[in-house]
Amino acid sequence: KNQVEQSPQSLIILEGKNCTLQCNYTVSPFSNLRWYKQDTGRGPVSLTIMTFSENTKSNGRYTATLDADTKQSSLHITASQLSDSASYICVVSKYGQNFVFGPGTRLSVLP
Amino acid sequence: DGGITQSPKYLFRKEGQNVTLSCEQNLNHDAMYWYRQDPGQGLRLIYYSQIVNDFQKGDIAEGYSVSREKKESFPLTVTSAQKNPTAFYLCASSTATGRKTQYFGPGTRLLVL
Predict the structure, then answer these.
(1) Model pLDDT for residues A45-70, shown as the tens digit of each residue
(2) Chain A hits for B33, Cβ within 8 Å
């Protein structure tokens, strides 16, 4: 079954600290993997996209990694800010088909 | 939120009533999607359309209907057959080929009175 799992379910950190969110998937055949940020009550916004041949992709303080062999991805946030408080969603797509969404990790950054 | 708009932001439905959620995009995207989001769950696909006048059922299409008469518009109707409609509804669009990065609207929250 095509699934995307994320951990932790929720995370609380202090402003300025780093954190890493995890994504494991069983989707096959794999096409690409995306990380989205979703503020409360808003639509998700794309942070990064990685294909099979890419193992690292950065977008400012966000760095995503992909290990296609183990079917794992991580999103590392450096020097967190209060505005990073949001849900982070891992999305995997299959070739020629639609997307499988993970349940998201809820990040809270406290001052 | 890109070039996608959804309305209304909040919508209330009475028992036995059909309601329609609006989704408009000006990104010139061929593909459009409707998702339902419930707390603690990933987005679930209701319907999608790859081209005008054509659409396909997603994973949870029962109790919903759509139309795609114009490239820019993809309205979703929540019918009275949908027994548990309370959720956050998200519309998205993308190119039909290539990496197909989805751009999402701001969402509509549907509540049952």
Answers:
(1) 999 999 888 899 999 999 999 999 99
(2) 98
